[in-house]
């Protein structure tokens, strides 16, 4: 266990006091001797990391990605008759020209797949791989299994094995797969672009694409990818609505939002929105029955026979440790915060009354408060003239979130396909007690969704 000197503890206490004063409404510029000292605590969104006048939002979450250059949106001409991809369900006779300049709609572009194929292609078909092998004295040609994953089958192929030698000729340790895994985790803390509402990129597979022969790797066999399905799909990044205020129309603006703070601040663990962080914290009830943050993240547990949080006897929880699952996050929200999180909330965290440091602002009863919509002058909830009201959590009758304002931040982004509540319109939770297997029609695997781990 780390030990701290008296001066260390005094310094830590000072930082906490600065943050508390800021959360209470005081300006950081009035609390600090100048705008350059690194005093205080990190706000959840990353705001106020820069205290220069007019720059408090620099690096904060939910801000537009800055551009250093003027964007050039490339036009893409795709000839449907030149590949095995049908763009309209009938015979195509003329090339289709699309452009990323289009603010919405479909773009047809083979380049993303071509680029990824070149990156992984270490066969003689890739001149870059041949050049790298020639410059590496340890390189050799080896047999590699094809798409079927088996040696000794017809789709085996010779590839260049190129040893990973660092630029200093071996004095340093080479990179390995750990760097790839950590790099992905690290990147998730720097940027996350919103997707959807601005169309789709269709990526036609060229005739020599390795996906077309299917699992056996042999072109012309029964498991070849069907002619009309030889394409991949990507969702375009969400643009900004233009002057009409409506996303998906011709006046949309080619700018995207970064939903995380681009600092090395572990926001992928602690989140980039204070409302999200409220649900990631662990709580205990005080003598008055109010939830109080323990200072720890919520951890995983077996919820006992009844599936509820904090039961006793046969329903008692068993601490597992590690990251909490979606089931545990929902259960704590109901039992301790008085908020009825459901699977419908998994893609958009409800907006709570919070301070900048992820603490919920207590209502009169000591509970967190959800920002709810109220009907405006037209009596309709869900349009531009809605009002707002704070509704306090209720442990005896957890509050419904149907009319809650939202943060635009997800509890989960990557979800197993069979557990995705949004995979098709009208899906309902199966509640059959089974994970996996044949999914009943019209349902999603709720038990599998409950097993997904939740982080920032």
Task: Describe the structure using short key phrases.
456 residues; alpha+beta; three-stranded mixed beta sheet; two-stranded antiparallel ribbon; 9 helices; 17 strands; globular
Largest sheet descriptor:
3 strands, mixed
Q: Count helical runs.
A: 9
Q: Percentage of helical residues? A: 10-25%
The strands making up the biggest β-sheet line up spatially as: 4-7-8
Distance between the termini: 26 Å
Please write out the topology:
Layout: H1 6-23, H2 28-31, E1 63-64, E2 75-78, E3 96-99, E4 106-108, H3 111-120, H4 127-134, E5 140-144, E6 157-161, H5 177-188, E7 195-204, E8 231-237, E9 257-258, H6 267-270, H7 274-280, E10 281-285, E11 291-297, E12 299-302, E13 318-323, H8 326-335, E14 369-374, E15 387-392, E16 428-429, E17 443-444, H9 446-450
Parallel strand pairs: 4-7, 16-17
Antiparallel strand pairs: 1-9, 2-3, 5-6, 7-8, 10-11, 12-13, 14-15
In words, what does this structure look like?
Helices cover 17% and strands 18% of the residues. It is of the alpha+beta class and 456 residues long. A hairpin with a 5-residue loop joins strand 10 (281-285) and strand 11 (291-297). It is globular, with a radius of gyration of 27 Å.
């Amino acid at each position: 266990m780390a030990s701290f000197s008296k001066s260390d503890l005094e310094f830590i206490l000072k930082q906490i006091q600065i943050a508390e004063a800021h959360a209470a409404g005081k300006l950081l510029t009035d609390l600090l001797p100048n705008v350059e000292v690194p005093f205080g605590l990190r706000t959840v969104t990353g705001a106020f990391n820069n205290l220069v006048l007019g720059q408090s939002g620099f690096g904060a979450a939910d801000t537009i990605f800055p551009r250093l250059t003027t964007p050039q949106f490339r036009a893409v001409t795709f000839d449907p008759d030149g590949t095995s991809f049908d763009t309209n369900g009938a015979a195509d006779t003329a090339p289709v020209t699309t452009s990323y300049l289009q603010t919405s709609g479909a773009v047809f572009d083979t380049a993303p797949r071509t680029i990824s194929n070149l990156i992984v292609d270490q066969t003689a078909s890739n001149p870059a791989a041949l050049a790298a092998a020639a410059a590496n004295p340890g390189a050799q040609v080896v047999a590699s299994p094809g798409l079927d994953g088996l040696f000794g089958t017809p789709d085996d192929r010779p590839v260049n094995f190129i040893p990973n030698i660092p630029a200093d000729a071996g004095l340093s340790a080479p990179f390995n797969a750990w760097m790839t895994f950590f790099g992905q985790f690290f990147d998730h803390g720097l940027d996350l672009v919103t997707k959807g509402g601005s169309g789709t990129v269709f990526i036609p597979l060229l005739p020599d694409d390795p996906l077309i022969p299917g699992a056996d790797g042999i072109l012309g066999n029964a498991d070849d990818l069907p002619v009309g399905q030889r394409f991949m799909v990507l969702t375009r990044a969400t643009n900004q609505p233009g002057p009409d205020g409506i996303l998906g129309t011709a006046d949309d603006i080619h700018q995207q939002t970064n939903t995380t703070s681009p600092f090395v601040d572990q926001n992928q663990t602690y989140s980039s929105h204070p409302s999200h962080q409220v649900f990631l914290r662990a709580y205990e009830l005080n003598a008055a029955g109010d939830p109080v943050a323990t200072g720890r993240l919520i951890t995983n547990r077996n919820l006992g026979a009844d599936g509820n949080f904090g039961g006793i006897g046969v329903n008692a929880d068993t601490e597992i440790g590690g990251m909490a699952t979606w089931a545990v996050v929902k259960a704590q929200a109901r039992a301790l915060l008085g908020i009825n999180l459901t699977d419908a909330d998994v893609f958009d965290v409800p907006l709570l009354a919070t301070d900048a440091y992820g603490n919920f602002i207590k209502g009169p009863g000591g509970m967190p408060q959800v920002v709810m919509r109220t009907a405006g002058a037209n009596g309709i909830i869900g349009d531009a003239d809605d009002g707002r009201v704070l509704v306090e959590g209720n442990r005896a009758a957890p509050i419904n979130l149907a009319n809650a304002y939202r943060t635009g931040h997800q509890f989960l982004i990557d979800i197993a396909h069979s557990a995705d509540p949004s995979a098709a319109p009208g899906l309902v939770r199966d509640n059959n007690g089974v994970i996996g297997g044949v999914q009943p029609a019209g349902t999603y695997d709720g038990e599998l969704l409950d097993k997904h781990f939740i982080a920032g």
